[in-house]
Amino acid sequence: MHKIEYILFSLIRFLILKLPLRQAQHLGSCIGRMLYYLLASRRTIALENLQNAFPDKNKSEIIKIAKGSFRNFGISMAELLWFPKLSDDKLAKLIKTNDIQKVNRAVTEGKGLIVLSGHFGNWELIASGIARLSHTPFTIVVQRQANKLVDNVINNHRCLYGNRVVPMGISVREILTTLQSGGVIALAPDQSAPKEGVYVDFFGRSVPTHQGPAVFALRCRSPILIGFLIRQTDGSYNCIIEEILYSDIKGHDNEAVKKLTQRHTECLEKYIRLYPDHWLWMHRRWKHQPKSATGRSAA
């Protein structure tokens, strides 16, 4: 099965690399629209997540956002596969931002830098693009794909311009070493975390969240930036980078970790609420819920 998936993936990659970027984005949009109808289970998850997150929206609004989310996913994957053709000149036209100095300034502090994003806009492009625009290589913490053949190709694309990847879960020592030596760590900690994770509020529900960014920041006192790519009608992106300030949080005990995790999660939620079709709603983000007094998971 994995070989069949890889053959199909390779055919799509070959086709996308033959196209100009705008046409590749259009193809990705079409694939995303098609996936909305083909992936029934993922469509159901997306609609349920949206109904819970936006109880004030009607059914047609929820469906429109869900379709936009699938479309965004398709475009993002097409752009990722197009990375080998993404020259510096094309990148400068694709990503528009006045916030690169925030990255450069944070790096000069010498305490390392943690760059966060979510599965929002094109999360693959922001890691590659901001690293290239700031002339600072990133160490990207990634989830391994089930299909190793596909995983290898995706990781090669992530590392085309000086970045490197480390797998989530076994990278703690490498991350700490990178930060302590003044390097940059990039990760998107917004997907489902183990039920033993730190619980914070996200769209009105308590949900376990990856605590790594907070743990690393508090231990190394590294600055935290969080970035978002906002897609424009011409296919380009506006990049917004914010700093997550936490000088008021002392120590690195569980309460400090929870407070900082809540802080960067709130920033992510703010941008998702502004651009709901940019986020990956088809992921089971709320599959773990805290136990109620009866011992059952709270819905």
Helix content: 40-55%
User: Termini, distance in Å?
Assistant: 35 Å
The total of beta strands comes to 9
Question: What does the radius of gyration come to?
Answer: 19 Å
Alpha-beta classification: alpha/beta
Q: State the helix count.
A: 11
Kindly estimate the percentage of residues that lie in beta strands according to DSSP. 15-25%
Dominant shape: globular
The strand order across the widest sheet is 1-9-8-2-5-3-4
Unreliable sequence segments: 293-299
Q: Whole-number average pLDDT? A: 94
Elements, N to C (H/E): HHHHHEHEHEHEHEEEHEEH
What composes the largest sheet? 7 strands, mixed
Question: Would you write up a description of this structure?
Answer:
The structure is a single chain. The protein is of the alpha/beta class. The chain contains 11 helices and 9 strands. A hairpin with a 5-residue loop joins strand 8 and strand 9. The longest helix has 23 residues, at 59-81. It is globular, with a radius of gyration of 19 Å. Residues 293-299 have low confidence and may be disordered.
Topology, pairings included?
Layout: H1 2-18, H2 21-38, H3 40-53, H4 59-81, H5 88-94, E1 95-96, H6 100-108, E2 113-116, H7 123-134, E3 138-142, H8 148-158, E4 164-167, H9 172-180, E5 184-187, E6 198-202, E7 205-209, H10 212-220, E8 224-231, E9 237-244, H11 254-274
Parallel strand pairs: 1-9, 2-5, 2-8, 3-4, 3-5
Antiparallel strand pairs: 6-7, 8-9
Helix pairs in contact: 2-4, 3-4, 10-11
